[in-house]
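hey all, quick one before standup. I had two proteins in the batch that finished overnight and I want to keep them in one place so we stop losing track of which output belongs to which input. First protein below, input sequence then structure tokens straight from the run.
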Amino acid sequence: IRGKLCEELEEFMLEDDRNKYSLELEDAENWLYEDGEFAEKPEYKKKLSDLQMKGEAVKRRRYEYEARPDAINQFGQCLQLAQKVVNQYKDGDEKYNHLDAADVDKVQ
């Protein structure tokens, strides 16, 4: 993930946070070859979990950024569909006679 921090994930993390996280990754790598060589499995898991938590947050921000245009488009389509139903209800379309006027007003 260290290589991705300065490339595809760069705009999804503040520069100070990115530098700090990069140093944490480097420290973890150094620890693996030094003190980590004799560490117990729970200690490995703890360090890995801490690093993954920060990395996954950045990846999630990137995913949300990339998925946002489609989500906004889908939301717009839902709004148009709801407005179409409201208009048809107001025009007296029989298939919407079961709707309560108060509920339709909430949507409008």
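OK second protein, same deal, sequence then tokens:
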Amino acid sequence: LTYAELGVDPPVDKDYDDNKNWCRYCGARYSSNFTKGPWGPRTLCTIHYIDWNQKKRLNLTQFKEMPKRPINPEANSELTYLRNMKSKKSDNFAMEEYEPGLQSKKRRRLNPVSYTHLTLPTIYSV
């Protein structure tokens, strides 16, 4: 699938100043999550956060200031993410469900943590 087939503008046409939810490394606007990077919260997509923080394969130390444009747009992960979501949803895929920033808000709203199934041990006094 291409950006046109998904009904999404390619990232090269994106004005990155109007949205805080995009990966400063690759420019992805769609991801399962945006998480902390060297510039603060929600500055890396999941793929590049793992490469930077967990696997230590992505060295971003030379970029002291928060990037205003993607550092490496060729590494953009959003099309792979959208293709995967479309293949999982098949006929029920709606692009508006994957607007930047909505994924984490929906996840919090739809999957609240519930502890009602836990039982606490009874403490007996003698």
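Flagging for whoever picks this up: The helical segments are 3-6, 46-54, 78-89, 102-110. The CA atoms of residues 12 and 92 lie 28 Å apart.
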